[in-house]
Amino acid sequence: MQEIMCENELNTKLFAKNFASKLSKGDVIVLTGDLGAGKTKFVEGVLEYFGLQEEISSPTFTIVNEYHNEKIDIYHFDLYRLKDVYEFENIGGEEYFNRGLCIFEWGELIEDILPNDYIKITFDKGNTDDERKLIIETFGTKYEGITF
Ligand SMILES: Nc1ncnc2c1ncn2[C@@H]1O[C@H](COP(=O)(O)OP(=O)(O)OP(=O)(O)O)[C@@H](O)[C@H]1O
Ligand SMILES: [Mg+2]
Question: What is the spatial distance between Cα 26 and Cα 64, in angstroms, rounded to a whole number?
């Protein structure tokens, strides 16, 4: 487990860009935390790293947004409105896991059916309005020994 203090939005995005440099196709990232915690800002940083920032849009009303270039295929899910894990299965959600880099806001809702290897980032409040504490946990063996 790793804890990162992000003083402000820019800091969160910078951390996300550095984090993204360690990611590739097949990685599964779960982002968990309250409304407004910074999950989407984090995704913006990841997209920026891969040169896909100009296309950012919120998946709030569509469940998944896709971003593609020659480097990567990114699937950005927002599961806030998901009823249950069966709804995810019914839309063929599991087929995305190996297709590219998958990032799930509110991903704890599908934790039961995630692959063995994944990274979970919990966004907690900090001491000031703009501070966020990011807690990074890895599951499975793929990320053993990697420092984010
Ligand atoms: N350290 C920080 N990191 C990220 N965002 C911050 C930080 N400090 C303040 N903010 C602000 O908090 C908000 C985070 O919004 P964001 O859409 O990323 O949240 P979210 O976790 O995706 O929420 P939701 O669950 O509604 O999708 C933004 O308005 C951003 O400017
Ligand atoms: Mg969001």
Answer: 16
